[in-house]
Structures are given as C-alpha cells and as structure tokens.
Design brief:
By secondary structure, the chain is an alpha/beta fold. The chain has 14 helices and twelve strands.
C-alpha cells in the first residue's frame, strides 16, 4: 500500500471517529429496558445474507426462536449464495433473497406489508444502512443487533453485548436471542444439533460401517490443500485404521478423487446431491471429517462429529469461526505460508494421536 493511501486511510478513520463521538453524545435512540415476551412476537425478519457457513451456524438460532414461540413466523433475508440452503433449512417459514447485496424492499413490502414485529440483523453495517434508508421500514418495529463499533449500531432498539462472552458465532447468535427475549434458558442449554431424518424425507446415506469423510473442495483458492497432503492423509487412514473413506468432491476435484480412490477399495466418492443438507446428514454419521476451512466443518460441529480442520493463517477469523461442540484438531498454516504449503509429515504425529481419541 502506497504512503498516500495509508495517510488517506488514517485521515478517513480520524474523521469517522470524530463523527462517531459526536453522534454518541447527541443521538438518543429508543431503547427497551425489558425483554420481549416470545408469545407477543408474531413475525420476525432475520438477516443473514452471506455465505453457506454463515447460514449453517445460524440454524440453531432459528430453532431457538421456534422453541420460544412455535407460532412465530420467521422470514429469512438470504443471499444468492446461500439461497439453496435457505430453501431447505428447517425452522424458516419464508425467504427474501437480496440482489446486488440489497433487499428488494418493494417486494418485501408487497409480500409482508412491513408488519414485522422484530428485525434481527446478524450481518453488518451495510444491511443496517439498507434497512434504515427505507423510511417506513423501522416505524414501530423493534430491531436487534450484536453491539458493534459503527454508527448504525446505535440505531437499534436492542444492542446486545452478551456475545462478547463467547468465541464462536453459533453461541454469539444464540446469546443475542436470549438477550432480547424472556427465556428461562442459557446459551449452553440450547440444542444445536440438526435432526436430519425429520427434515429429509426417506434419507439414507447408503454408506456401510464406520467411515471418515474427506472433503476435497476448498471453496476458495486461499484455502486449497495440496494434492500431496490428501494422498498422504488418505494413505495414513487406510494403513492405520479400519475406517472406510468417503470423498466429497465438486466437479473440478473429480480427477483427484478418482486418483485417491485407486489407493483402496475402502474408498468411495460421493455423488451429486439434490439437497445440501444430505451432505450434513452424511457428516453427522461419520467418525471424522477432514476438511479445509469451508462450510462443511460447521455441519460437523452442530452434530458433534470430530474434525481435522486445515486453516490458512488468520487468527481473528479463527476466533470467531472456530469449531465448537466437538473435539477437533486444527492445523494452521504458518504466517506468510499458504495452506497448500502445509506438509502432512510435519503433522503426522498430531494426526495419529488425534485419531486414537475418536475410537
């Protein structure tokens, strides 16, 4: 980054801090000092318009809302990226898809008449701006968001802080709901598992015996694991355990999957699925999931499937999105190192030790 750009950013940040300070002194938002009674909240609009993993870790939040009031109508504001998962996710009654990172508020008005009792924003400042730029959207509607250091955070009816007590996003979001509703429940008491058999008609994984799932799909180039690492870890599992292995691959990873399958007749390749939750169901019954940092690791966490996760070097991202609710081994690239540079041989002892803990 050039010197001029650095100076410009510092000046911009300074101006924003001054504006933020003046805003806090002068603006007095409407705030609720008591919690909401769940039975009185009939319709909720929840915003989670980002990626697959973000929506997966939010499923327990939808479940909690339904537990608090089974008659509560939950409308999800989703994105084109997670729409396919949103359409099959449990506990969601309806969805609204954002286009070009904006919600079509006119369609929302025609469909729901803006008669939401509560809006829960689980995303960021951009969504806050969209919501508050619509003059009629926030009249008489209670709003909630986790406390954040930007101007729009101060506009919310509820600006919760309990999320600071938790390290992973699932529990952070659950804490937001329990902060705003009357509920005789703690975050630690909330059910986070997904009952796949109740939401996928006639589901059967078709996999025999104990098996390990190996995810070959990285989603992003920066998370891509080397072919050599995959060959080494698959060989290790075949030689050191009696587990079958199921390879999950997208179309561009099929060639690698076919080469790995030659290693042993205990290896199979997962075919195309119609419902992304079927992948979650397969992972929920596995003895272990081995994966780069993708949405699939969140499926494992919710149903307590042990994990070996391979991460790029990013401490802050790991703190917010780290695995929870299950035992896991995190292998992280060194600073200034790519994920593809991680060597199996440098982690073989740790992997072998972890495999012994899941028997």
């Amino acid at each position: 980054m050039g010197i001029k750009k650095k100076i410009t950013r510092k000046i911009e940040r300074g101006i924003k801090l001054v504006i933020y300070f003046v805003f806090k002194l002068t603006y007095k938002p409407i705030r609720f000092n008591k919690k909401l009674i769940p039975s009185q909240i009939k319709k909720v609009f929840v915003v989670r318009d980002d990626k697959f993993g973000d929506l997966i870790v939010t499923i327990p939040t939808f479940r909690l809302l339904k537990e608090l009031n089974p008659n509560m109508l939950i409308v999800l504001g989703c994105s084109v990226y997670n729409e396919s998962l949103a359409r099959v996710s449990p506990y969601i009654d309806d969805i609204v898809v954002s286009k070009n990172n904006l919600f079509d508020l006119k369609s929302l008005q025609l469909k729901h008449g803006y008669d939401f009792d509560l809006i829960i924003n689980l995303v960021n400042n951009r969504v806050s701006k969209v919501l508050y730029n619509c003059k009629d959207f926030n009249k008489g509607i209670m709003t909630a968001q986790m406390d954040k250091n930007h101007l729009y955070s101060k506009l919310y009816t509820f600006n919760t802080t309990s999320h600071y007590n938790y390290k992973n996003m699932t529990q952070k979001q659950l804490s937001l709901v329990l902060d705003i509703f009357e509920a005789n429940k703690r975050v630690e008491d909330c059910v986070v598992s997904i009952d796949y058999e109740s939401i996928i008609d006639g589901y059967s994984s078709g996999i025999k015996g104990n098996y390990v799932v190996v995810n070959l799909s990285s989603g992003q180039e920066k998370n891509k694991i080397s072919d050599r690492f995959y060959f080494d870890i698959v060989n290790f599992i075949v030689n050191e355990t009696s587990y079958n292995i199921l390879l999950i691959a997208m179309e561009n990873e099929f060639e690698l999957a076919r080469k790995l399958k030659i290693i042993s007749n205990r290896i199979s390749i997962n075919g195309k699925v119609e419902n992304i939750l079927e992948i979650g169901a397969i992972i929920s019954k596995a003895k272990l999931l081995i994966t780069p940092d993708t949405s699939l690791l969140h499926f494992a966490c919710l149903n307590k499937t042990p994990l070996i996760c391979i991460y790029r070097y990013d401490i802050s991202n790991f703190e917010d999105w780290s695995p929870f609710n299950t035992k896991y081994l995190a292998i992280m690239a060194k600073e200034h190192q790519f994920v593809a540079d991680i060597e199996f041989s440098e982690n073989e002892e740790r992997i072998g030790g972890f495999l012994k803990t899941i028997d």
